[in-house]
Amino acid sequence: MQRIVRKKRVYPGADIERVWEALTIGKKLDNWFMENNFEGKENAQFEFFDKPGEKFKGVYNGEIISFQTPINLAYSWSHSKLKHTTYIWWKLESKGDNTILELEHSGFKGFHDFIKSYSYSSFWNKKLRELLIFLSKERDPVEI
Q1: SS3 breakdown of the chain: % helix, strand, coil, rounded to 5?
Q2: Is the Cα torsion angle 5, 8, 14, 15 positive or negative in sign?
């Protein structure tokens, strides 16, 4: 039993470089995703840290598998609530002044992770909305 969570969104008025930076620069990720020690380069290991008040107060661990500026980012994703390491793949495509973003979260194996994948579907919906808000409010560059 395996399941893949897939999401596709259009970010109007956000060129591909802005969306790419929001996904790959740690200080920008802090603003819409989670606190982190993310370093955008292939084979880099990183951690995302949950914000206070959320149910899971742990650490998400990962390693970058693919880093192809500005179109493809893939990394492993694991934490104590998952039985197996999962994988996240971001694909970006430029369409004029807009960017199409595709997200695929795969590797959910077994009954426990299969059930967990449903909460990840909601999690990614929320985070992709937060990315939209971040991109629409970002007037000045975030200091890095």
Answers
A1: 30, 40, 30
A2: positive
The structural domain count of the chain equals: 1
Residue 143 resides in a domain:
no
Q: CA 23, 24, 30, 35 torsion: positive or negative?
A: positive
> Which neighbouring-strand residues pair with 56?
none
Measured CA to CA in angstroms, residue 74 lies from 7, 24, 62, 67 at distances of 15, 11, 10, 7
Residues across the chain? 144
Domain containing 82 equals 2-137
The end-to-end CA distance of the chain, in Å, is 42
pLDDT, tens digit (0-9, with 9 covering 90-100), for 82-123? 888 999 999 999 999 899 999 999 999 988 888 889 999 999
Residue 47 token pair: 């951690």
142 domain-assigned: no
Report if residue 144 sits inside a domain.
no
